[in-house]
Structures are given as C-alpha cells and as structure tokens.
Specification:
about 55% helix; mainly alpha
Amino acid sequence: MKPSDFQKTVQCRFESCLKKVVRHVVKDYQQGLKRRKDKEIPFCELPEIVVEKLAVWDEYETDYTIFNVCGNDIRVYDDELAEALKKLPERKRDNVLMYYFLELSDTKIADILNNGGMIFSNVTFTVSPTSKFCSGLYIFSIVTSSPLARIT
C-alpha cells in the first residue's frame, strides 16, 4: 500500500518538527556548556592561596605529640623536638613551652609558677641542651604559627 499525498505531507511536517526540536535542544546544551565554561576555572589556573583554602589536611594522633601546659594543649609535629622536650625535667619543659609556644613573658610565667625571677635563667639554660638534641633545629625559630607546633 502506497501512502497518500496527505500522509506524506503529515510525515514531512512531523519530521521537520522533530528536527527543529532536536536542533534547539542541541543549541541549548551548547549554550549551557559555554555559560558554564565562562564561570568555571580549572584548578591549575587558581591562585595558590585559594587552593590552600580548599585543601583538607587529615590530622592523626600519631603525627604529633601533645604537651599540656596551663590547660593548653600544645601539639608538636616535629619528632626530634618532641623527644628533646620529653627529656627535659617537667619544670624546665613547662618554662620552655610557655615562653616559646604560648609566647608568655617572663613575668607572666613567674606569676603562673610562683617562683620569681628564675624563669629567664631556666629558659636560657634549657635552650642550650635542647638545641643539641634537635641537631640544628633551634627553639628560637619556633613560634605559635610554626608548622612544627600548634596550640589547640
């Protein structure tokens, strides 16, 4: 059976309508990709500061050693420094941690420990043996913002 002229006309109109719909769907998709491309930036083109803000660093208890001084937990990330601090007597270790990590002045440390002016001599005496243990890693270079120690 041969289709009539009317059926051919309807079929051609239907095919034409389908082609238009497909053409517009493809055009909308390409425009969406273009809009998305204009708004997105590849990671390789992001500034270093932005990438660091996006990064998440896992911290495990095995990565650091905690020293508790005056109710503050001080995390020491360098193993050599932690071992050197462990070898010190508790009083001298507390003096060093308060002075260098908590950045307390001599007078504040003396007020906390109630022992007068012995703080500066304890800290200076303690720095020399500790620097020997750390083999070049001097406590003078360690402050609260250092990656080696962090106060939590």
